[in-house]
Design goal:
The structure holds 2 protein chains of 2 kinds. By secondary structure, chain A is α/β, with parallel strands linked by helices. Chain A has helices at residues 13-24, 53-67, 90-115, 130-133, 139-159, 184-191, 202-213, and strands at residues 4-8, 28-33, 43-47, 72-75, 121-126, 164-170, 224-226. In chain B, helix 1 (3-14) runs antiparallel to helix 3 and helix 1 packs across helix 5. Classes of the chains: A alpha/beta, B mainly alpha.
């Protein structure tokens, strides 16, 4: 069987691109997302909201029954809200933390259970340049991604014995729904903080993930790579 | 395969030394805790292996790591007999 890859948040944006991309490379791709989408013959799409941990359990049972294994996990699903910290409702902060960090944690726990018996795995978590840039107006989002980064580094140490690597990629702004409500001026000012001053492309993200998931990258773990020259 | 075989086979897969301990101590073989043969990574591997074998044998997905289990004074993973009793209860309670 081809390598089996799970990509969360695959109904649109980066996740959809990654699902289509890896499917074209003949991986067996399982996607998941909250939205109903047109079915594709090349991506096995599981409709469900992964912020509901019961949905995560059901997704993993589905993968175990249908495929018997999981080789690669890309934790792409995430939500954001831009607001000054004193203007953001705590319920929104909680939602962001649940979806971006708690669900990522749970999916990594469950996916590792499928990877350990095969003594192989690649876990890639999506973070953001909002973390190193400490972007005003993005405290909840950046904090949730900072939690993902810390978790990535520690989980990398905890899983290396099982030949599972855990890394993260931090995109710069890319034209997706996540930034549709961000003004052009704001996007421009973010791009000006980058060493390489251009908007990111989907291919920039898959380029880094390609490196992380290669069989030859078994010695690369616990790393965070940001795009655009951010460090 | 019955539960005791699932437990002992899983322990053997994790640590080659399990067999020797089991021959001497049988159900009282200490797995995790003071004097146990598992370290924490061994326990992770053991739990994943047992869950996997139970799923394949019984078609039932159980999670051995629960809030209740991890907060008990004596770990349910302490010995072969405590693990057996714990898993039987989990399966019985659905």
């Amino acid at each position: 069987m081809d390598k089996v890859i799970l990509i969360t948040g695959s109904s649109k944006g980066i996740g959809k691109y990654l699902a289509d991309y890896y499917s074209s490379l003949e991986y067996t791709v399982i996607g998941c997302g909250r939205s109903k989408i047109e079915s594709s013959s090349s991506v096995d799409y599981f409709e469900g909201d992964i912020s509901d941990l019961q949905v995560v359990s059901e997704l993993m049972t589905y993968i175990k029954l249908k495929y018997g294994k999981l080789d690669i996990l890309i934790n792409n699903a995430g939500i954001a809200a831009m607001n000054h910290s004193l203007l953001i409702p705590i319920s929104t902060v909680s939602n962001i933390m649940n979806t971006n960090f708690i669900s990522t944690f749970k999916i990594c726990q469950e996916s590792s259970r499928l990877m350990i018996p095969n003594n192989f795995g690649r876990i890639i978590n999506l973070t953001s340049v909002a973390v190193p840039l400490n972007l005003e107006g993005e405290a909840a989002y950046a904090a949730s991604k900072a939690a993902v980064e810390s978790f990535t580094k520690i989980l990398a140490k905890e899983l290396c014995r099982f030949n599972i690597t855990v890394n993260a990629v931090g995109p710069t702004p890319i034209k997706t729904d996540l930034i549709k409500n961000v003004s052009n001026d704001r996007i421009e000012s973010l791009i000006n903080m980058q060493s390489i001053k251009r908007i990111g492309e989907f291919g920039d993200v898959s380029n880094v993930i390609d490196f992380f998931i290669k069989p030859e990258s078994g010695f690369i773990t616990g790393q965070i790579i940001y795009l655009g020259g951010i460090s | 395969m019955d539960l005791i075989n699932i437990i002992t086979e899983s322990a053997q897969e994790v640590d080659d030394l399990f067999d020797l301990s089991y021959q001497e101590h049988s159900m009282d073989t200490v797995l995790f805790g003071s004097g146990g043969i598992f370290d924490s990574l061994d326990l992770v591997k053991f739990i994943v292996t047992v869950e996997d074998k139970i799923f394949k044998e019984y078609g039932k997905r159980i999670e051995l790591v629960t809030d209740k289990a991890m907060s008990q004074k004596r770990s349910p993973f302490y010995s072969v007999s405590t693990i057996l009793k714990y898993i039987e209860e989990l399966i019985k309670n659905g």
